[in-house]
Amino acid sequence: MSLTKKFERYLPDTSHYSNIVYLKNIDGDWYQQQSMFSQNTVKILYDDEGIIASISNDISMLYPEGYYVLELDEKTIINPDFHRVKNGEIYVYQSPKERVVSENKTKKQTLLREISDAITPLQDAVELGIATDEEREQLRAWKEYRVQVNRVDVELGLDINWPVSPK
Questions:
Q1: 73 Cβ contact list (under 8 Å, min separation 6)
Q2: 135 with 85, same domain?
Q3: Is the pLDDT of residue 161 over 70?
Q4: Which InterPro entries does the entry link to (predicted)?
């Protein structure tokens, strides 16, 4: 079940209790609508941006003023830090900056692995005392490159100037 209209406060024509906040949407009173929800589901409140504000198995624990209500299978795992709601569906959300930072981390890890793979045989030759002058220079260049890549701040997003490989 999904209530696709936001809830707002109202004063009923006849109020049976004092100090009670009444909420309604186009479909009617919030407290009357609660009976339409299953007990074996997860209910969430979300705003116009799809940001999840509250999660509960118990519909009576939610206060939907200014929010929409969505009901999902009880086995649905929801993390408000990573999930949003769009068109009544849950989806994994990453901001554009988070996505770029994640891609930068992956690129940095990949480069560091490739650099280590290039350094290993050159380092072996030096340690065994059989390295040529060219191999020693390549080793120095690869190690310098590794330090430069390691210093890259992946949080800079698109503003990263990646070091140039010594290939």
A1: 41, 42
A2: no
A3: yes
A4: Phage_T4_Gp38_tail_assem, TFA_Chaperone
Q: Nearest-5° angle of CA 137, CA 138, CA 139?
A: 90
Per-residue pLDDT tens digits for 78-88: 888 788 999 88
Residue range of the domain that includes 79: 2-92
Note the pLDDT of residue 3. Answer: 66
CB 80 within 8 A of CB 93: no
**E strands in the chain:** 2-3, 8-10, 22-25, 28-29, 41-46, 52-56, 68-73, 83-86, 89-92
The pLDDT tens digits of the residues spanning 32-50 come to: 999 999 999 999 999 999 9
Tell me the one-letter amino acid at 55.
I
Assigned domain for 43 exists? yes
Nearest Cα neighbor of 76 from 58, 59, 57, 61 is 57
